[in-house]
Amino acid sequence: MSERAEVVVLGAGFGGLTVAHRLAQLGIDDVVILERDDGVGGTWRANRYPGAACDVPSHLYSLSFAPNPDWSTAYASQAEILDYVERCYDRLDVRRNVRTRTEVVEARWEEAEAMWRVRSRDGATFDAPVLVSAIGMFHSPKVPDIPGLDEFTGPVVHSARWDPGLDLRDQRVSVIGTGASAIQIVPAIAGEVAHVDVYQRTPPWVLPRENPPFTDEQKQEFAERPEVAAKLRQDLHDMHEGTTVFLTGDRLARKIEAYARSFLEESVPDPVLREQLTPRYPFGCTRPLISSDYYPAIQRPDVDLVTTGIERITPTGVQTVDGTERAADVLVLCTGFHAAEYLRGIEVVGREGVRIHDRWAGVPRAYHGIAVPGFPNFFMLYGPNTNQGGNSILLMLEAQAQFVASALEVVRDRGASTVEVTEEAMARYLDELEADLGRTVWTSGCTSYFHTATGDVVTQLPQKAGWYRERTESLVPGDFTFGGVTCTTS
Hints:
The protein is α/β, with parallel strands linked by helices. 29% of the residues lie in helices and 17% in strands.
């Protein structure tokens, strides 16, 4: 027998928490949150690798309705963020809505009942008129297709599925990839292991990260004078909003790129190594990284940067295309996620049996990243083209939760049973989106997780967070159709 609710939410991370809290404010408390992991926290529960931390300042990477005066440093660690999420689920009374160890594999719209039927891998079903996906884009780790990987005799671990029992002491560790997780892992393990080989395909742009601790006096002031913490958060917001760069030819981007180059030059005196670490693409074309300890770590005598391409994994090491084999006891895969494949692993079936993956045909798109024609009462948080690297993603999640609440409020006021974005509104949005994307550095020829295999930019928002919040503050009724209307309001 199915468990019934008014709203089913997929994912118990920040997104699930935010939308459940906002709906509760609207009086919608009958919400079930389905989480495949064994607890809440989302990406901050899954990513427990050494050195894991946030690259957005702590007071900005927190929810506006749940300030935390006790952040220990300017940039919080994974453990501290997970603790914060856990406490928010308890303090906001949302944990009772969560069903853990529930991996959703299908969500199907039942037209006759105007209901979403959600099925988990273990066969359990959940019925609700409204479905919200809050699983985001960093939930499916990407394992590289390298010949011989399955023949390696030692441990192989992906950064997003770290084995807490893995002992790296006295081991030769090969780190494959130089993205966000790698530049945190390498400094964390260098000096603790026998040797680290870092395999780089594309060097990242790196900016320094100052991470001073907050004093007890500062934390006390944040607690006793919330307006002080609020001002700090606003100042951080304004700074990040003002330095978000993605447009081709942006003069500010060139200034930041010059700053990153000078940081590299000051940090790495060896001209050969510095050349290897210098990106060959414009700043902002891929995700810029924040670290003050990666460049020092890569110059240690027990760390080698390998820029020759990998040909295969052998049972005891990594062989590059020049025939060199380097011994390895442990492989650490810092190879990212299937970020461009939204709802990966879940069959979402809308009206007339249309699969959302078929509609997308490899290029995920949604109205403001939230709604898709043919999929009534279905909303996405952190959906297509809502990632923006200049500010906190929590700002976006709060905006999307507000949009969902606005939509359901209009449904309630009209006495309707369904709300669905029109094809016309979707087409207008896509025209605007494509025009805006065409002005960005992301379409200049570089490749990253922003892109599909065919080069379409499906993750990034070609606007700033403030623009997005204004656009999603309330539903535009003319862009939607409402089904089962029993009454109207003036």
